[in-house]
Amino acid sequence: MQTTWSPDTEHGTIHNRAELPESVFAFPVQRKEPLSDGDHVRNALARFDQVEGASDADRDLAFANIKAAAAYYGVDVRENSWRDLMR
After folding, report:
1. Number of separate domains in the chain
2. Which of 1, 14, 22, 45 is buried deepest, with most CB atoms within 10 A?
3. Which backbone phi and psi does 53 adopt, to 5 degrees?
4. Host domain of residue 40
5. What is the reported pLDDT for 20?
6. pTM, rounded to two decimals
């Protein structure tokens, strides 16, 4: 799965979530679960099953985005699939 995530290094410190580009969200279409640092990556993993209205394709993309952000921020992801995150 091709990711859409990229670290937001162009905008400096952003204090308003609405100012974040779509490329920093796990779910870019829904603008859910920003992946702007390691804590947000861990939070996205923990809350993955709480995102409503996401298709399987949305979840495939979100999981790929989370894995890319996790690698960038040095966060360990033990799950092999987003289905492992569903409770």
Report:
1. 1
2. 45
3. 75, 20
4. 23-77
5. 87
6. 0.90
